[in-house]
Design goal:
The chain is of the alpha/beta class. The protein has 21 helices and 20 strands. Helix 10 links the parallel strand 10 and strand 11. The longest helix has 21 residues. The protein starts with 6 loop residues before the first helix and ends in a 14-residue tail after the last helix. The relative contact order is 0.13. The structure holds pyridoxal-5'-phosphate.
Length: about 625
């Protein structure tokens, strides 16, 4: 049975399996393999991140589309606004696309640090919203004032009363030196009683790092009133955590926030007009139906937000708030696919060719060989049990000195081959015993990438990302697979999991290339990625479609070369360069040899640190 790798669960219709390959389900439907090969033919080796701007646009359209539908359906009178939270992905080839493809929506950016604020000020179209969250010092608040004075529509969300005092201080300073009275809008992050669930839920709840308690909210309003700035208080904000797997906690949070909004308005916060519901909209990452990673759709999400805000406003007799969202994962995840070449299969030596049967073999080995040749569907279970039994006996015979290393090698190969054949013939579904045996013969696929750099949330949080090979998809994958990356760290492994099994194809990588696609990696992974072992951000490329549906590969940005990596760590690369050179120059080689050696060295220094040549031309 061929596998569709759970595409119908996590794929959102973005990709499709067609014959042997996985294709982009858009325009002229190019295969990921063709795109990858074209990039590699231009000389780029190692892993590559493919960016698909049409998938950014699709998510933004979905977000605005669903809220606009819900607004109509519930006759909601506020406005819908959204910003992209930069911490999810600040890479320029992504951010530029976000800004370009969303102009019709007045989509803005959210910043959580000074550097992100500068990106937001430089990239957000004038008039589109900017929201600023996170802890802020005086400089950061002053930057927000500069943004306002230069025309931006910016809201500073305060996380604590001290920030409010700083805003007042900066306001006084700016009033002295500038004639206009423009100041940023003020938002208040509320410390929610409700919190999300799941691995990312720490942003909400009473013990959260962020937000003002009810008491502080009241004090903040008093302070603003005294300063004559209460009208500037425009927004309340909450964020209950990323990847909200269930909708329940969001609904609770919406009720809590809705009532706070209504109450503050009744207490005279006349300027208050918006609720910012933060991010948290989840993405389906699962490749197996039973492990779904969210229990709601974007439609249900939009309906719940709009309905609850409508209901609370009606009951409390206040104006319906404008709604802001800061969904990041939902917007960014889909657009990026990491493609990485398989360099090696570790138990490839367990093949028929490696068998070295003798003229005369121990009887049990002869028997294993018979089992291997005559195994078929009807006897597979029995032969499998016999083989495992023989293995035990033969290993005991080896320990006692009755058979030699060559016999032992033949035993291991034959048993491995029999298990593989048996598993392929039998239906492992619901069979725990077979699954356990399968676990034992799992194949290790060495893949030219770093899990620390490219899937840090797998390393840190056990987050699963869909994995699909780019070829052989019309064939049954027979190998229970574990993925090894090329770092020297034993954590750089995606182990085989019998409950969400990854099966790959039995490939001879010396004869043909085999690539794995890691999907939904567009949110958080790139910027959280760490340079463990000095493997850096992989080569990236943007895949754009033209009016005729043809694709072009643009903005290829190669992974950093070796010297740039060291430069980033603040090594003096001039000194390193000199030392490498003088070592060669002072060596006992002939002048001609020195020159050739230097040539080779400089060629390698200009390359990135991913592997190139385990097999000729692979990597
Ligand atoms: C991280 C963050 C977001 C984005 O969350 P997602 O789960 O990626 O949608 C939005 N708002 C704030 C304040 C955040 O800290």
């Amino acid at each position: 049975m061929k596998s569709n790798y759970g595409l119908s669960i996590w794929g959102s219709g973005n990709f499709d399996i067609e014959g042997d390959t996985i294709v982009v389900n858009y325009a002229n439907r190019p295969s990921l393999l063709d795109i990858t090969q074209e990039i590699r033919n231009s000389g780029y080796k190692g892993p590559v991140i493919l960016r698909f701007p049409h998938l950014i646009k699709k998510q933004i359209d979905l977000l605005f589309g669903e809220f606009s539908r819900a607004f109509e359906e519930f006759e909601y009178r506020g406005s819908f606004n959204a910003v992209f939270p930069l911490k999810v992905n600040q890479f320029p080839n992504f951010v530029n696309e976000v800004v370009e493809c969303s102009r019709e929506y007045n989509y803005g950016l959210e910043a959580g640090s000074k550097a992100e604020l500068i990106i937001a000020m430089a990239k957000t179209p004038i008039g589109a919203p900017i929201t600023v969250n996170g802890f802020k010092d005086k400089e950061m608040i002053a930057l927000c004032f500069i943004a306002t004075k230069s025309g931006h529509n910016i809201t500073i969300t305060i996380e604590g009363l001290n920030e409010l005092k700083t805003i007042i201080e900066v306001h006084k300073e700016f009033t002295k030196s500038f004639s206009d009275a423009l100041i940023p809008s003020i938002g208040m992050r509320i410390r929610m009683h409700s919190s999300g669930i799941g691995v990312w839920s720490k942003s909400g709840g009473y013990s959260s790092k962020f937000g003002l308690t009810s008491t502080e909210l009241l004090i903040a309003c008093d302070i603003l009133r005294e300063e004559g700035l209460l009208e500037q208080f425009k927004m309340i904000h909450f964020h209950i955590g990323s990847q909200m797997e269930e909708i329940g906690p969001l609904k609770k949070a919406l009720r809590e926030a809705g009532n706070i909004y209504a109450d503050l308005k009744k207490r005279g916060a006349k300027g208050l007009e918006s609720i910012n519901i933060g991010g948290g909209l989840a993405v389906e990452y699962s490749q197996v139906a039973k492990n779904h990673s969210r229990n709601y759709s974007i439609k249900e999400f939009a309906n719940d937000v709009v309905f609850l805000m409508k209901e609370i406003s009606k009951n409390k007799g206040v104006k319906e708030p404008n709604i802001y969202t800061e969904s990041g994962r939902f917007i960014a995840s889909h657009h990026a696919v990491l493609v990485a070449p398989v360099l090696e299969l570790f138990s490839q030596e367990y093949n028929e060719k490696s068998l070295a049967l003798k003229e005369k073999n121990p009887p049990l080995i002869e028997e294993l060989y018979d089992l291997y040749r005559s195994i078929e569907k009807t006897n597979a279970r029995e032969y499998l049990h016999d083989a495992i039994d023989h293995l035990e006996s033969l290993l005991t015979l080896f320990d006692l000195g009755y058979i030699d290393l060559e016999d032992r090698s033949n035993t291991e190969i034959l048993v491995n081959l029999i298990i593989k054949k048996a598993i392929a013939l039998l239906d492992t579904k619901g069979r725990e015993d077979l699954k356990q045996i399968e676990d034992k013969i799992q194949e290790k696929y060495l893949v030219n990438f770093s899990i620390f750099q490219s899937l840090p949330d797998f390393w840190g949080l056990g987050q699963h990302f869909p994995i699909v090979p780019l070829s052989h998809l019309s064939k049954t994958p027979t190998q229970a697979a574990a993925i090894w990356d090329i770092t020297c760290d034993s954590d750089g492994e995606i182990a085989y999991n019998a409950h969400a099994p990854l099966k790959l194809h039995d490939i001879n990588v010396e004869e043909e290339e085999y690539f794995l696609g890691f999907f939904l990696v567009g949110a958080y992974q790139e910027v959280l990625g760490m340079k463990h072992n000095l493997f850096t951000h992989p080569t990236e490329a943007t895949i754009r479609f033209d009016k005729n549906g043809d694709y072009s590969i643009e903005s290829i940005l190669e992974a950093q070369n070796l010297m740039d990596i060291l430069d980033d760590l603040d090594y003096d690369i001039g000194v390193i360069d000199k030392r490498l050179k003088s070592n060669i120059e002072e060596s006992s080689l002939s002048d001609d040899e020195k020159e050739r050696l230097l040539g080779k060295l400089y060629l390698y220094l200009s390359e990135n640190s991913y592997l190139k040549t385990i097999q000729a031309s692979r990597g």
